[in-house]
Amino acid sequence: MSKVLLSQRSPLHRQLAASAAQWAHTSSSRPTSPHPVRPLLAKREDIEYCRQLVQKHDYDNYLVSLFSPRLAREAVWGIRALNVELVRVGDMTTSEAAAKMRYSYWRDALGKLYGDHPVQTPVSRTVHDAVHRFGISKTWLRRLVSERENTGAGTSFETVADVEKYGERAYACLIHPHLEALGVRDMHADNAARAIGVATAIMNFSRSLPLLLPQGRCDLPKDLVEKHNVDLEALYANPRPTPELREAIYDFSTKGYTRLCGVAEIYVPNSPSQGFPALLAAVPVKEWFERLERAEFDVFDKRLQRRSLRVLWQLWQASRKGTWLDASNIRK
Q1: Tell me: the pLDDT tens digits for 45-64?
Q2: What phi, psi does 110 have (nearest 5°)?
Q3: I need a labelling partner for 60 at 20 to 30 A (CA). Which of 158, 282, 288, 303 fits?
Protein backbone atom coordinates (compact mmCIF):
# COMPACT_ATOMS: atom_id res chain seq x y z
CA MET A 1 0.00 0.00 0.00
CA SER A 2 1.42 3.34 -0.96
CA LYS A 3 1.98 5.86 1.82
CA VAL A 4 1.23 9.47 0.90
CA LEU A 5 1.82 12.37 3.27
CA LEU A 6 -1.37 14.38 3.59
CA SER A 7 -1.81 18.02 4.51
CA GLN A 8 -3.95 19.30 7.37
CA ARG A 9 -7.67 19.46 6.76
CA SER A 10 -9.22 22.82 6.02
CA PRO A 11 -12.04 24.18 8.23
CA LEU A 12 -14.50 23.43 5.42
CA HIS A 13 -13.20 19.87 5.24
CA ARG A 14 -13.73 19.43 8.99
CA GLN A 15 -17.23 20.88 8.72
CA LEU A 16 -18.20 18.54 5.88
CA ALA A 17 -16.78 15.52 7.70
CA ALA A 18 -18.70 16.40 10.85
CA SER A 19 -21.87 16.87 8.82
CA ALA A 20 -21.38 13.51 7.13
CA ALA A 21 -20.98 11.74 10.46
CA GLN A 22 -24.06 13.47 11.87
CA TRP A 23 -26.09 12.55 8.77
CA ALA A 24 -25.05 8.90 9.04
CA HIS A 25 -25.92 8.83 12.75
CA THR A 26 -29.42 10.26 12.31
CA SER A 27 -30.48 8.83 8.95
CA SER A 28 -30.50 5.11 9.76
CA SER A 29 -33.34 3.57 11.72
CA ARG A 30 -32.37 0.02 10.68
CA PRO A 31 -31.16 -2.25 13.50
CA THR A 32 -27.36 -2.34 13.47
CA SER A 33 -26.75 -5.32 15.77
CA PRO A 34 -28.55 -8.32 14.20
CA HIS A 35 -26.52 -11.08 15.90
CA PRO A 36 -26.56 -12.25 19.52
CA VAL A 37 -23.85 -10.26 21.24
CA ARG A 38 -21.30 -11.75 23.63
CA PRO A 39 -19.93 -9.45 26.31
CA LEU A 40 -18.38 -6.47 24.53
CA LEU A 41 -14.78 -5.71 25.38
CA ALA A 42 -13.79 -2.53 23.52
CA LYS A 43 -13.67 0.60 25.60
CA ARG A 44 -14.31 4.04 24.23
CA GLU A 45 -10.57 4.72 24.11
CA ASP A 46 -10.03 1.51 22.06
CA ILE A 47 -12.47 2.68 19.42
CA GLU A 48 -10.91 6.13 19.45
CA TYR A 49 -7.46 4.60 18.98
CA CYS A 50 -8.69 2.73 15.89
CA ARG A 51 -10.44 5.81 14.56
CA GLN A 52 -7.30 7.90 14.82
CA LEU A 53 -5.16 5.18 13.27
CA VAL A 54 -7.45 4.92 10.24
CA GLN A 55 -7.81 8.69 9.97
CA LYS A 56 -4.03 9.07 9.89
CA HIS A 57 -3.06 6.19 7.59
CA ASP A 58 -6.16 5.51 5.45
CA TYR A 59 -7.85 8.87 5.32
CA ASP A 60 -10.01 8.35 2.23
CA ASN A 61 -11.60 5.24 3.70
CA TYR A 62 -12.00 7.03 7.01
CA LEU A 63 -14.19 9.50 5.12
CA VAL A 64 -16.09 6.61 3.54
CA SER A 65 -16.82 5.20 7.00
CA LEU A 66 -18.53 8.41 8.09
CA PHE A 67 -21.52 7.61 5.89
CA SER A 68 -22.34 4.41 7.80
CA PRO A 69 -24.39 4.07 11.01
CA ARG A 70 -22.37 4.44 14.20
CA LEU A 71 -21.90 0.78 15.16
CA ALA A 72 -21.04 -0.25 11.61
CA ARG A 73 -18.67 2.69 11.40
CA GLU A 74 -16.85 1.58 14.54
CA ALA A 75 -16.58 -1.97 13.16
CA VAL A 76 -15.02 -0.59 9.99
CA TRP A 77 -12.51 1.42 12.02
CA GLY A 78 -11.44 -1.74 13.83
CA ILE A 79 -10.97 -3.78 10.65
CA ARG A 80 -9.27 -0.94 8.78
CA ALA A 81 -6.99 -0.39 11.79
CA LEU A 82 -6.07 -4.09 11.65
CA ASN A 83 -5.16 -3.59 8.00
CA VAL A 84 -2.96 -0.60 8.92
CA GLU A 85 -1.17 -2.69 11.52
CA LEU A 86 -0.53 -5.44 8.96
CA VAL A 87 0.70 -3.01 6.31
CA ARG A 88 3.10 -1.46 8.81
CA VAL A 89 4.73 -4.80 9.64
CA GLY A 90 7.18 -4.39 6.76
CA ASP A 91 8.06 -0.86 7.85
CA MET A 92 8.50 -1.68 11.52
CA THR A 93 10.57 -4.87 11.22
CA THR A 94 14.23 -5.08 10.28
CA SER A 95 14.36 -8.63 8.95
CA GLU A 96 12.22 -11.20 7.17
CA ALA A 97 12.29 -13.41 10.26
CA ALA A 98 10.97 -10.58 12.43
CA ALA A 99 8.20 -9.88 9.90
CA LYS A 100 7.17 -13.56 9.91
CA MET A 101 6.99 -13.52 13.68
CA ARG A 102 4.77 -10.45 13.59
CA TYR A 103 2.43 -12.00 11.03
CA SER A 104 2.32 -15.16 13.13
CA TYR A 105 1.29 -13.01 16.09
CA TRP A 106 -1.61 -11.58 14.09
CA ARG A 107 -2.69 -15.02 12.84
CA ASP A 108 -2.86 -16.21 16.44
CA ALA A 109 -4.70 -13.05 17.44
CA LEU A 110 -7.19 -13.61 14.63
CA GLY A 111 -8.03 -17.07 15.93
CA LYS A 112 -8.74 -15.65 19.38
CA LEU A 113 -11.04 -12.93 18.03
CA TYR A 114 -13.78 -15.49 17.56
CA GLY A 115 -13.62 -16.63 21.18
CA ASP A 116 -14.17 -14.78 24.44
CA HIS A 117 -10.54 -13.97 25.18
CA PRO A 118 -8.93 -11.95 22.36
CA VAL A 119 -5.44 -10.54 22.57
CA GLN A 120 -5.67 -7.46 24.76
CA THR A 121 -4.90 -4.64 22.36
CA PRO A 122 -7.19 -1.80 21.25
CA VAL A 123 -7.41 -3.17 17.69
CA SER A 124 -8.11 -6.75 18.79
CA ARG A 125 -10.83 -5.71 21.24
CA THR A 126 -12.53 -3.48 18.66
CA VAL A 127 -12.44 -6.16 15.95
CA HIS A 128 -13.64 -8.76 18.49
CA ASP A 129 -16.74 -6.68 19.15
CA ALA A 130 -17.36 -6.21 15.42
CA VAL A 131 -17.05 -9.96 14.83
CA HIS A 132 -19.55 -10.86 17.53
CA ARG A 133 -21.94 -7.98 16.95
CA PHE A 134 -22.28 -8.45 13.19
CA GLY A 135 -21.09 -12.00 12.53
CA ILE A 136 -18.15 -10.89 10.40
CA SER A 137 -16.95 -13.88 8.36
CA LYS A 138 -13.59 -15.27 9.39
CA THR A 139 -12.74 -15.74 5.70
CA TRP A 140 -12.23 -12.02 5.12
CA LEU A 141 -9.95 -11.45 8.12
CA ARG A 142 -7.91 -14.58 7.45
CA ARG A 143 -7.48 -13.46 3.85
CA LEU A 144 -6.46 -9.99 4.99
CA VAL A 145 -3.59 -11.41 7.04
CA SER A 146 -2.46 -13.94 4.42
CA GLU A 147 -2.44 -11.45 1.53
CA ARG A 148 -0.43 -8.90 3.48
CA GLU A 149 2.05 -11.60 4.48
CA ASN A 150 2.37 -13.13 1.01
CA THR A 151 2.73 -9.83 -0.81
CA GLY A 152 5.62 -7.99 0.76
CA ALA A 153 8.35 -5.76 -0.59
CA GLY A 154 9.88 -7.13 -3.76
CA THR A 155 6.76 -8.99 -4.90
CA SER A 156 6.24 -8.65 -8.65
CA PHE A 157 3.25 -9.36 -10.85
CA GLU A 158 3.57 -10.94 -14.27
CA THR A 159 0.30 -9.78 -15.80
CA VAL A 160 -2.50 -7.27 -15.35
CA ALA A 161 -4.75 -10.25 -14.59
CA ASP A 162 -2.49 -11.08 -11.63
CA VAL A 163 -2.95 -7.57 -10.28
CA GLU A 164 -6.70 -7.89 -10.71
CA LYS A 165 -6.74 -11.17 -8.78
CA TYR A 166 -4.66 -9.55 -6.04
CA GLY A 167 -7.09 -6.63 -5.83
CA GLU A 168 -10.04 -8.98 -5.53
CA ARG A 169 -8.40 -10.65 -2.55
CA ALA A 170 -6.32 -8.01 -0.78
CA TYR A 171 -8.59 -4.96 -1.05
CA ALA A 172 -12.07 -6.41 -1.47
CA CYS A 173 -11.61 -8.26 1.84
CA LEU A 174 -11.88 -4.86 3.53
CA ILE A 175 -15.19 -4.05 1.82
CA HIS A 176 -16.91 -7.39 2.45
CA PRO A 177 -16.83 -6.95 6.27
CA HIS A 178 -18.22 -3.44 5.84
CA LEU A 179 -21.14 -4.91 3.91
CA GLU A 180 -21.69 -7.50 6.63
CA ALA A 181 -21.65 -4.78 9.29
CA LEU A 182 -24.46 -3.14 7.33
CA GLY A 183 -26.43 -6.40 7.34
CA VAL A 184 -25.77 -7.21 3.66
CA ARG A 185 -24.78 -10.61 2.32
CA ASP A 186 -25.60 -10.43 -1.37
CA MET A 187 -24.01 -11.76 -4.57
CA HIS A 188 -24.26 -8.46 -6.47
CA ALA A 189 -22.81 -6.47 -3.59
CA ASP A 190 -19.96 -8.98 -3.28
CA ASN A 191 -19.25 -8.69 -7.01
CA ALA A 192 -19.20 -4.91 -6.62
CA ALA A 193 -16.72 -5.22 -3.73
CA ARG A 194 -14.39 -7.38 -5.84
CA ALA A 195 -14.45 -4.93 -8.74
CA ILE A 196 -13.76 -1.99 -6.41
CA GLY A 197 -10.87 -4.01 -4.96
CA VAL A 198 -9.40 -4.41 -8.44
CA ALA A 199 -9.65 -0.67 -9.13
CA THR A 200 -8.09 0.11 -5.74
CA ALA A 201 -5.11 -2.14 -6.47
CA ILE A 202 -4.57 -0.45 -9.83
CA MET A 203 -4.72 2.99 -8.20
CA ASN A 204 -2.30 2.06 -5.42
CA PHE A 205 0.18 0.41 -7.78
CA SER A 206 0.16 3.52 -9.99
CA ARG A 207 0.26 6.01 -7.11
CA SER A 208 3.23 4.28 -5.46
CA LEU A 209 5.55 4.64 -8.48
CA PRO A 210 7.11 7.99 -7.46
CA LEU A 211 8.10 6.39 -4.14
CA LEU A 212 9.25 3.03 -5.51
CA LEU A 213 11.17 3.94 -8.67
CA PRO A 214 13.99 5.75 -6.79
CA GLN A 215 14.36 2.53 -4.76
CA GLY A 216 14.76 0.43 -7.91
CA ARG A 217 11.27 -1.06 -7.59
CA CYS A 218 8.14 -1.01 -9.73
CA ASP A 219 4.68 -2.42 -9.06
CA LEU A 220 3.51 -2.31 -12.68
CA PRO A 221 2.90 -5.81 -14.10
CA LYS A 222 5.56 -7.07 -16.46
CA ASP A 223 3.25 -7.56 -19.44
CA LEU A 224 2.18 -3.91 -19.25
CA VAL A 225 5.80 -2.74 -19.06
CA GLU A 226 6.72 -4.83 -22.10
CA LYS A 227 3.63 -3.83 -24.07
CA HIS A 228 4.51 -0.12 -23.83
CA ASN A 229 8.32 -0.53 -23.99
CA VAL A 230 8.86 1.10 -20.61
CA ASP A 231 12.60 1.27 -19.83
CA LEU A 232 12.64 0.50 -16.12
CA GLU A 233 16.42 0.70 -15.77
CA ALA A 234 16.36 4.25 -17.10
CA LEU A 235 13.50 5.14 -14.74
CA TYR A 236 15.33 3.67 -11.75
CA ALA A 237 18.32 5.87 -12.58
CA ASN A 238 16.22 8.95 -13.36
CA PRO A 239 12.54 8.69 -12.31
CA ARG A 240 10.42 10.85 -14.63
CA PRO A 241 7.18 10.75 -16.66
CA THR A 242 8.41 9.37 -19.97
CA PRO A 243 5.92 9.04 -22.87
CA GLU A 244 6.10 5.24 -22.57
CA LEU A 245 5.32 5.35 -18.85
CA ARG A 246 2.39 7.70 -19.42
CA GLU A 247 0.97 5.31 -22.04
CA ALA A 248 1.32 2.39 -19.65
CA ILE A 249 -0.37 4.33 -16.84
CA TYR A 250 -3.17 5.38 -19.20
CA ASP A 251 -3.75 1.74 -20.19
CA PHE A 252 -3.59 0.54 -16.58
CA SER A 253 -5.81 3.22 -15.05
CA THR A 254 -8.42 2.90 -17.78
CA LYS A 255 -8.99 -0.69 -16.72
CA GLY A 256 -9.56 0.41 -13.13
CA TYR A 257 -11.85 3.30 -14.03
CA THR A 258 -13.92 1.10 -16.32
CA ARG A 259 -14.42 -1.36 -13.45
CA LEU A 260 -15.86 1.41 -11.28
CA CYS A 261 -18.28 2.53 -13.98
CA GLY A 262 -19.37 -1.08 -14.45
CA VAL A 263 -20.01 -1.45 -10.73
CA ALA A 264 -22.24 1.63 -10.69
CA GLU A 265 -24.15 0.59 -13.82
CA ILE A 266 -24.55 -3.15 -13.17
CA TYR A 267 -24.05 -4.19 -9.55
CA VAL A 268 -25.18 -1.21 -7.49
CA PRO A 269 -28.74 -1.10 -8.94
CA ASN A 270 -29.14 -4.81 -8.12
CA SER A 271 -27.66 -4.68 -4.62
CA PRO A 272 -29.52 -3.95 -1.37
CA SER A 273 -29.55 -0.21 -0.82
CA GLN A 274 -28.45 -0.51 2.81
CA GLY A 275 -25.09 -1.80 1.57
CA PHE A 276 -24.35 1.27 -0.52
CA PRO A 277 -22.27 3.03 2.20
CA ALA A 278 -19.70 0.22 1.92
CA LEU A 279 -19.55 0.57 -1.86
CA LEU A 280 -18.72 4.27 -1.46
CA ALA A 281 -15.12 2.99 -1.23
CA ALA A 282 -15.20 3.39 -5.02
CA VAL A 283 -15.54 7.18 -4.81
CA PRO A 284 -11.99 8.13 -3.65
CA VAL A 285 -10.55 5.74 -6.24
CA LYS A 286 -12.66 7.25 -9.03
CA GLU A 287 -11.70 10.77 -7.92
CA TRP A 288 -7.97 9.89 -8.02
CA PHE A 289 -8.27 8.45 -11.53
CA GLU A 290 -9.97 11.65 -12.65
CA ARG A 291 -7.17 13.75 -11.17
CA LEU A 292 -4.67 11.47 -12.92
CA GLU A 293 -6.40 12.18 -16.22
CA ARG A 294 -6.25 15.93 -15.59
CA ALA A 295 -2.53 15.50 -14.88
CA GLU A 296 -2.20 13.81 -18.31
CA PHE A 297 -1.27 10.50 -16.65
CA ASP A 298 1.84 11.91 -15.03
CA VAL A 299 2.06 10.01 -11.74
CA PHE A 300 4.83 12.38 -10.62
CA ASP A 301 2.45 15.36 -10.62
CA LYS A 302 2.53 16.58 -7.02
CA ARG A 303 -1.17 17.37 -7.08
CA LEU A 304 -1.82 13.61 -7.06
CA GLN A 305 -0.08 13.27 -3.69
CA ARG A 306 -2.21 15.90 -1.96
CA ARG A 307 -5.45 15.45 -0.10
CA SER A 308 -8.41 16.48 -2.20
CA LEU A 309 -11.41 18.28 -0.76
CA ARG A 310 -13.41 16.95 -3.71
CA VAL A 311 -13.40 13.42 -2.23
CA LEU A 312 -15.67 14.31 0.67
CA TRP A 313 -17.93 16.37 -1.55
CA GLN A 314 -18.24 13.52 -4.06
CA LEU A 315 -18.94 11.06 -1.25
CA TRP A 316 -21.73 13.33 -0.03
CA GLN A 317 -23.20 13.63 -3.50
CA ALA A 318 -22.97 9.89 -4.18
CA SER A 319 -24.60 9.03 -0.85
CA ARG A 320 -27.51 11.31 -1.73
CA LYS A 321 -27.94 10.10 -5.31
CA GLY A 322 -27.18 6.43 -4.73
CA THR A 323 -24.52 6.44 -7.46
CA TRP A 324 -21.12 7.96 -8.19
CA LEU A 325 -21.81 8.28 -11.90
CA ASP A 326 -22.79 11.50 -13.60
CA ALA A 327 -23.40 12.40 -17.23
CA SER A 328 -19.69 12.94 -17.91
CA ASN A 329 -18.91 9.32 -16.93
CA ILE A 330 -21.30 7.77 -19.45
CA ARG A 331 -19.83 7.37 -22.90
CA LYS A 332 -22.31 7.24 -25.76
Answers
A1: 999 999 999 999 999 999 99
A2: -60, -45
A3: 158
